[in-house]
Design goal:
9 helices; transmembrane; transmembrane helix; globular; membrane; DUF1624 domain-containing protein; HGSNAT_cat
Length: about 230
């Protein structure tokens, strides 16, 4: 069962994501400058929205294990494709644990936490705080990227380690135990965006790149020059 309220919230996050990525892609191709605290926290706020909503939805829906496995397999496949594509085109900023990688693991871990609703909030808070501490440290290996420990000189286009973001996911799950959607019928374009958020995530950058190419005239050429 789908809940329009959840789709609406996710649709708002989709719009914010698209707005940010238009600016980010323009920045990446050297067309504009992005600086300041806003452009640091804005994408993390958007990612946090998606993560909180995903945890909340898992708590509300409580999917069967068979359905959950199918979802995780789809996410894992997409995560592998993202890693492969970024390795081919931007090897210096390859995505090794982006938000889709995060959702792959968080969905599995969240399924386990469905059986322990009383510890979702304290565990979520603890994981979030631990992540804030770990993210300030640097290590000599990249083997711990998934948990939130980054190596020196680490650079990537997208990074959402389990800590602190699993904390946001679990806090979302906790709220799902007490704040239930009512299934109110809504007919808004944002709901359609929310229902198709993963598809939009997949196709957004090619569309944005084409849009920027129309405006600036050399974006696609820059991409082709990367491989030279």
């Amino acid at each position: 069962m789908r809940y329009p309220e959840i789709d609406l919230a996710r649709g708002i996050a989709v719009v914010l994501m698209l707005v940010y990525h238009i600016f980010f892609d323009a920045y990446y191709f050297g067309k504009i400058e992005l600086s300041g605290a806003f452009w640091y926290y804005f994408p993390r706020f958007i990612g946090g929205m998606f993560i909180f909503i995903s945890g909340y939805t898992l708590s509300i829906v409580k999917p069967e294990l068979r359905r959950l496995k199918k979802k995780v397999l789809k996410l894992a496949t997409l995560a592998a494709i993202i890693t492969a594509i970024t390795y081919a085109f931007v090897p210096d900023k390859v995505v090794v644990f982006g938000i889709i990688h995060f959702f792959t693991f968080a969905t599995l871990i969240g399924y386990i936490f469905l059986k322990f609703p009383k510890i979702q909030l304290p565990a979520g808070i603890a994981f979030f705080i631990m992540g804030l501490i770990l993210n300030q440290k640097r290590v000599d290996t990249g083997m711990l990227l998934w948990i939130g420990l980054m190596p020196y000189s680490f650079s990537t286009l997208d990074y959402y380690p389990l800590l602190p973001w699993l904390g946001i996911f679990l806090i979302g799950m906790f709220f799902g135990n007490f704040v239930k959607p009512k299934g109110i019928k809504l007919d808004l374009p944002l709901i359609y965006l929310g229902r198709n958020s993963l598809k939009i995530y997949v196709v957004q950058h090619p569309v944005i790149i084409l849009f920027l190419h129309v405006i600036y005239g050399d974006v696609i050429q820059q991409i082709l020059n990367i491989g030279e």
